[in-house]
Amino acid sequence: MADILVIEDDGVVRDALRELLTRAGHCVRVASDGGSGVGVFRSQRPDLVILDRHLPVLSGSAVFANIRALAPEARIILLSGHDDPEAVAVYLNHGAAAFLSKGDGLSNVLLAVEAIVGTLAPKPAPACRVPARQALPLVLVADDDAMMRDILRRALDELGCRVLEAADGEEAARLALAHRPDIVILDMVMPRKGGLETLRELVPELPSAAFMVITGLGEEKSGREAMRLGAMDYITKPFNLALLKTAVEARLLQHDSLGSAGL
Fold first, then answer.
1. Which residues, listed in sequence order, are joined to residue 3 by a DSSP beta bridge?
2. pLDDT at residue 20 above 60?
3. Hey, CA dihedral for 101, 106, 109, 111, is it positive or negative?
4. Is 33 exposed, middle or buried (0-12, 13-18, 19+ CB in 10 A)?
């Protein structure tokens, strides 16, 4: 378990990161602007900071400089809504632990966190509540395209997951409530009941499940709406299968973290 500070002014992204990292067993503190973020860091000295580049009150670059001045050894992951190779190089050269694009989804954040946490020296765990252990991974895939379901099932099989399949939103809701999967992957556009409607129905019923949605190219707004409703991440079609596997592996790390804690 690590003590992590998330400095992010976007409430949807901030809440999604807090939920994602808390489920992985970490203690998470948050700040919604740069000034508050520096204040929290100064008083709490967390193990790791996840920092948005664009913040009110104090910019991401100014927060980065302040934190590095307070603690040169601080581990900081930068998040950006835009790919900028020059900015990546600048931050990494000045000691950033990682520079990630929000466009790749939030699962990469968890993988980066786990890699960094593995390098930290052991210390007493922060006083944070750890959630109850989840069951062994079971994934529900809901997509009306049979070929897409087959592709997803094969990819999930390779990760050692058990897979349930649904061809529409109504079938997905029925299977989810009956089997209570650990991960639910929903296509946004399905017959009988769409992805958002299905998500809205299932999130309150399955509070321990991790929801992911698949959106079309250029439908980032739909993906953000899904995250507002409780999805942990979204993937855009046509997606790279390796990226999907990365997202699912990030969810499985949550099970490993909780299991190793003996919960």
1. 27
2. yes
3. negative
4. middle
Q: Which residue has the higher pLDDT, 131 or 39?
A: 39
Domain ranges of the chain: 3-117, 138-260
> Which two tokens mark 159?
């990760």
Could you give the dihedral angle defined by the CA atoms of residues 245, 251, 255 and 261, in that order, rounded to the nearest 10 degrees?
120
Provide the pairing of β-strand 48-52 with 98-101: unpaired
Tokens of 260: 């190793």
Distances in whole angstroms, Cα of residue 178 to Cα of each of 11, 112, 182, 202 = 32, 34, 12, 11
Residue 55, pLDDT > 50, answer: yes
Helix (H) / strand (E) containing 32 = none
Q: Which overall architecture, per CATH, does domain 138-260 show? A: 3-Layer(aba) Sandwich (3.40)
Kindly state the tokens that stand for 261: 């804690």
The CATH number of the domain covering residues in 3-117 = 3.40.50.2300
